[in-house]
């Protein structure tokens, strides 16, 4: 959920209607929600390479919210496990890629005093992805306190981070992203001959001595426009060393790979990989048109894992992060969890600042040339060994026989294979979510990530036998720069995409040299595929311009049945073991084996593993007989005083449409069975106590506690946000309409609202709309003020001179409209300015100066008396053409939802007539305009008025001639 209400709330059912009551005072529990990694704003979330300051003064009931992508959450039992990242006794709280996870502070946590949480993926814990929460247990919950924050700091060593993690003082966020970002900069965009733009940037420095290791996050200067999406071109990176000259960019020397080894990079400012991606121009280049990656979702964060190899003798052991015994001797295992500073022979270690230089090009999306979106997927070979990301390659004789492979030239290798459906092996982004792409996969590029020792990777179609990807490793031979180091992995680019079904069974193959030991290696394949979604120029803004409509359309808001809320987990009863780490990484994929395992207590029990206790029914529900759970959450009534028990008949169709607004008349009507009974209508039965609770003395007898209450506020907000998330990835017309309607509904709603959705919309709708109008990565909107929302068609169009953002100003320094309009190259207002960039419409960039503002009622430059063309009458000018019966009480309460049935019902006089019920007459045409063929033309603009006037004059003129 991107938006969070800042106040406690309770859900109330009074007289059969759900009310949302918001309590703005301090509640008894004082509970708050703390979003991990949210300070400084807009937050960094839960990632490795960041130092998390301790959370001070947490209390029982407080909620810690994690946003999980490629990370999980473990609870560690003590300070020792927290410091050493020992997970043997840890409890798995939430798995990776499980979305939002909330951990609630318990009484047991308060007794313990401190809570220790960490990520157990790979060695992320050792990369400081852990957090300590100090829980106050004095029981004085009524004492007001500042809301605890989760602050992160970038650029700290593990030693300094540990000091911070045990600090008892409030940590300022000033040492975080601002200070790191201050040392990152980019040149101004330079226009290229092909119409693209080139930008060169430098990252903040990474300061190292010989043998030193850095694994942390860096805030990079964002090289692309922040107000709109553009199409990516070529992106190339390398590491450089030295001190930049006065211009901030020159005077730097490229770092040789045998001086600075790039273990791996994570992030999306540029495409990462490791040493094999440095200075490569085919790994991250533009795609053949119409395909392309667009900017806006990558953020400005990169994680560096680099090692200074100067004067390091055992360089292979160093870059493979071999583990050591207590005497400092390297062992036969390793990985990033053992990545510490390496031994060096340098007599006087020299400190060097290393920076990443990244050069990018980008292109504006052209008006008539939409881009078909490209996304990337990831597959990992290590699960074939029950591992995650990293694994070790033993000597050849120690490898199982079915993994041994000897090449034609005698090279001894370990071959691993992973076979399965494409949509199960590959995940979205960097192991973020399960595959959710098109059914037909169109593959445009294959990129591999290997370590030293890697020979090749392949992706095969098991049906056709064809090789989809073939990625062969290449090694350096220059003893002064890169001898023995991995310098490249072949990239497969396809002008015409390779197409396969998303459920096609594929084989992922990896070959590693086994003539010597290799530890902590990786074998990851990245695929770039087309989604089939076209992105047009008008979809590129990163802020959606909302407007205040004349009326709210509540039917567009999510529907919500307050009396029955299905449990998400009980809709379908299936076994989900195949998608669980027990199967993916542990090879335990049969429910019968899990249920009957010695580590299991059987159905309705748990399976005890090194990752913690796993509820059996959560992975083997079907095999356990689908234990029944209530199919709805019982919603109890909550009353704060007798006044909350009201008669709500006036809000019911019987009153609104039938004129029966008095409970005495309603309850005692011939069609009613009295209090405790029902009122029989043509639209179905109505529970009398629901609408006349006070009259029937059917109010709740006692005030229930919050534990007996279901709080619907967050549920409704999540429904609204889900709708907006699906519609607002790009600035589409649908997105603008939904946001504008939500903002409008919130604007007109008042304290008389009884509908639960409208109550939440009233209280939070405008804040949600303003938040979701900011598209893409939140970091791009830092410092932005919320837009001013004006009425649709009136004042919503801002008329201003935009010359300062035009290339004539950006690159030609011609920034004043008076000078621009009167220049020799210009034909003046209403004309064009002839430039090297092409003709520029003067009125487009100097609208205010030329008094060429659009008409405020239409948003178009309207010229009275302009030629009128019948083709200007479009469907958007037609209103009333959609049947609205589904939104009427006849459908909602009487189940009469088909226009043909409605118009031909015995109670109806048909199209042009009315439907007669005890609640009054309803116009058939109004409910079924399309069915009845009574759509009407709406004069929606001055141009439309002119069209109608011209038609009338033509008719009158013809009549006079006759």
How many strands, which pairing sense, and closed or not: the largest β-sheet?
Answer: 7 strands, antiparallel
Shape: globular
- Rg on CA atoms, Å: 33 Å
User: Percentage of helical residues?
Assistant: 10-25%
- Gap between N and C termini, in Å? 69 Å
Unreliable residue stretches:
3-29, 172-181, 562-571, 629-644, 702-709, 856-880, 936-962
Task: Give the helix/strand layout.
Blueprint: E1 8-14, E2 17-23, E3 33-35, E4 51-52, E5 55-58, E6 63-68, E7 73-76, H1 79-84, E8 91-94, E9 99-104, H2 107-112, E10 114-118, E11 130-135, E12 152-153, H3 158-165, H4 177-181, E13 185-186, E14 190-191, E15 197-202, E16 206-208, E17 213-219, E18 231-241, E19 253-254, E20 260-267, E21 291-292, E22 301-308, H5 315-319, E23 322-324, E24 330-334, E25 352-363, E26 371-380, E27 391-393, E28 404-406, E29 412-421, H6 422-425, E30 427-428, E31 433-434, E32 440-450, E33 454-461, E34 467-475, E35 486-489, E36 492-501, E37 505-513, E38 518-521, E39 523-535, H7 581-584, H8 591-595, E40 606-609, E41 612-615, H9 616-619, H10 653-656, H11 663-667, E42 678-681, E43 684-687, H12 688-691, H13 713-727, H14 733-748, H15 756-772, H16 807-810, H17 817-821, E44 832-835, E45 838-841, H18 842-845, E46 878-879, H19 889-892, H20 899-904, E47 914-917, E48 920-923, H21 924-927, H22 929-932, E49 936-937, H23 942-961
Parallel strand pairs: 3-6, 5-11, 21-26
Antiparallel strand pairs: 1-2, 4-12, 6-9, 7-8, 7-10, 10-11, 13-15, 14-15, 15-25, 16-25, 17-22, 18-19, 18-25, 20-22, 23-24, 26-30, 26-39, 27-38, 28-29, 29-37, 30-31, 32-36, 32-39, 33-34, 33-37, 34-35, 40-41, 42-43, 44-45, 46-49, 47-48
């Amino acid at each position: 959920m991107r938006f969070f209400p800042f106040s406690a709330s309770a859900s109330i059912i009074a007289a059969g209607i759900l009310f949302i009551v918001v309590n703005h005072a301090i509640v008894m529990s004082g509970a708050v929600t703390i979003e991990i990694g949210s300070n400084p704003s807009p937050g960094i979330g839960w990632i490795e390479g960041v130092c998390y300051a301790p959370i001070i003064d947490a209390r029982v009931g407080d909620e810690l919210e994690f946003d999980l992508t490629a990370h999980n959450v473990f609870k560690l039992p003590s300070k020792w496990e927290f410091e050493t990242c020992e997970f043997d006794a840890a409890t798995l709280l939430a798995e990776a890629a499980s979305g939002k996870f909330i951990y609630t502070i318990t009484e047991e946590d308060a007794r313990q005093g401190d809570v220790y949480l960490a990520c157990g993926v790979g060695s992320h814990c050792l990369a400081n992805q852990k957090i300590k929460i100090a829980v106050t247990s004095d029981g004085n919950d009524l004492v007001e306190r500042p809301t605890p924050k989760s602050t992160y700091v970038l650029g700290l060593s593990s030693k300094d981070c540990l000091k911070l993690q045990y600090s008892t003082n409030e940590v300022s966020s000033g040492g975080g992203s601002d200070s790191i970002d201050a040392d990152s900069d980019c040149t101004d965009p330079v226009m290229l001959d092909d119409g693209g733009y080139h930008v060169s940037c430098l990252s903040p420095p990474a300061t190292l001595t010989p043998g030193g290791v850095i694994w942390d996050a860096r805030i990079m200067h964002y090289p692309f426009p922040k107000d709109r999406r553009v199409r990516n071109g070529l992106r190339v990176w390398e590491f450089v060393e030295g001190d930049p000259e006065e211009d901030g960019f020159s005077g730097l020397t490229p770092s040789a790979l045998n001086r600075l080894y790039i273990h791996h990079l994570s992030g999306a400012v540029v495409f990462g990989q490791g040493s094999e991606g440095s200075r490569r121009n085919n790994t991250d280049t533009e795609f053949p048109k119409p395909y392309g990656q667009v900017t806006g979702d990558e953020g400005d964060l990169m994680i560096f894992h680099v090692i200074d190899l100067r004067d390091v003798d055992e360089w292979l052991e160093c870059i493979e992060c071999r583990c050591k015994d207590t005497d400092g001797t390297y062992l036969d295992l390793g990985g990033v969890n053992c990545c510490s500073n390496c031994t060096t022979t340098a007599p006087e270690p020299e400190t060097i600042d290393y920076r990443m230089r990244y050069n990018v090009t980008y292109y504006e999306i052209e008006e008539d040339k939409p881009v078909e979106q490209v996304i990337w997927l990831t597959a990992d070979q290590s699960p074939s060994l029950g591992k995650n990301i990293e694994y070790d390659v033993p000597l050849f004789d120690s490898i199982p026989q079915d993994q041994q492979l000897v090449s034609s030239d005698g090279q001894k290798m370990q071959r691993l294979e992973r076979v399965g459906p494409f949509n199960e092996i590959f995940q979205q982004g960097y192991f973020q979510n399960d595959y959710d792409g098109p059914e037909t996969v169109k593959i445009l590029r294959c990129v591999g990530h290997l370590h030293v020792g890697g020979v090749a990777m392949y992706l095969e179609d098991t049906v056709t036998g064809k090789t989809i990807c073939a990625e062969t490793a290449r090694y350096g031979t220059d003893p002064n720069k890169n001898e023995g180091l991995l310098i490249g992995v072949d990239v497969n680019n396809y002008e015409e995409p390779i197409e396969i079904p998303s459920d096609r069974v594929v084989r992922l193959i990896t070959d590693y040299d086994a003539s010597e030991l290799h530890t902590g290696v990786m074998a990851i394949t990245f695929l770039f595929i087309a989604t089939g979604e076209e992105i047009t120029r008008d979809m590129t803004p990163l802020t959606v311009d909302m407007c205040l409509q004349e009326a709210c359309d509540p039917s567009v808001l999510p529907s919500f049945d307050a009396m029955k809320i299905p449990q998400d987990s009980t809709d379908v009863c299936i076994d989900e073991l195949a998608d669980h780490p027990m199967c993916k990484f542990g090879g335990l994929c049969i429910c019968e084996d899990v249920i009957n395992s010695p580590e299991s207590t059987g159905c309705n029990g748990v399976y005890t593993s090194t990752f913690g206790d796993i509820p059996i029914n959560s992975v083997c529900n079907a095999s356990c007989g689908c234990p029944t759970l209530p199919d709805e959450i019982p919603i109890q009534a909550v009353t704060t005083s007798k006044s909350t028990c009201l008669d709500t008949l006036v809000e019911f169709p019987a009153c609104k449409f039938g004129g029966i607004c008095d409970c005495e008349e309603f309850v005692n009507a011939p069609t009613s069975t009295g209090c405790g009974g029902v009122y029989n209508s043509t639209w179905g039965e109505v529970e009398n106590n629901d609408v006349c609770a006070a009259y029937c003395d059917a109010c709740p007898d006692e005030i229930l506690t919050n534990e007996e209450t279901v709080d619907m506020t967050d549920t409704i907000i999540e429904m609204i946000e889900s709708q907006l998330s699906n519609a607002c990835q790009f600035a589409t017309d649908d997105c603008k309409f939904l946001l504008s309607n939500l903002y409008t509904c919130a604007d007109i709603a008042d304290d008389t609202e009884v509908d639960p959705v409208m109550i939440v919309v009233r209280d939070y709708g405008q804040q949600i709309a303003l938040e979701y109008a900011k598209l893409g990565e939140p970091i791009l909107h830092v410092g932005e003020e919320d837009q001013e929302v004006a009425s649709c068609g009136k004042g919503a169009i801002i008329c201003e001179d935009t010359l300062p953002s035009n290339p004539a100003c950006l690159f030609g320094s011609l920034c004043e409209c008076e000078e621009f309009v009167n220049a020799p190259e210009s034909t003046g207002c209403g004309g064009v300015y002839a430039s090297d960039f092409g003709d520029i419409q003067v009125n487009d960039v100097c609208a205010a100066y030329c008094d060429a503002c659009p008409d405020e009622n239409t948003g178009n430059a309207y010229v009275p008396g302009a030629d009128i063309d019948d083709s200007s009458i479009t469907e958007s000018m037609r209103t009333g053409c959609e049947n609205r019966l589904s939104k009427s009480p006849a459908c909602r309460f009487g189940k009469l939802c088909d226009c043909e049935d409605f118009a031909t019902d015995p109670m109806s006089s048909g199209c042009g007539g009315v439907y007669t019920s005890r609640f009054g007459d309803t116009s058939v045409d109004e409910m079924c305009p399309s069915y009845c063929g009574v759509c009407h033309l709406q004069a929606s603009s001055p141009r439309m008025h002119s069209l109608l006037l011209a038609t009338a004059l033509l008719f009158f003129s013809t009549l006079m001639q006759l």
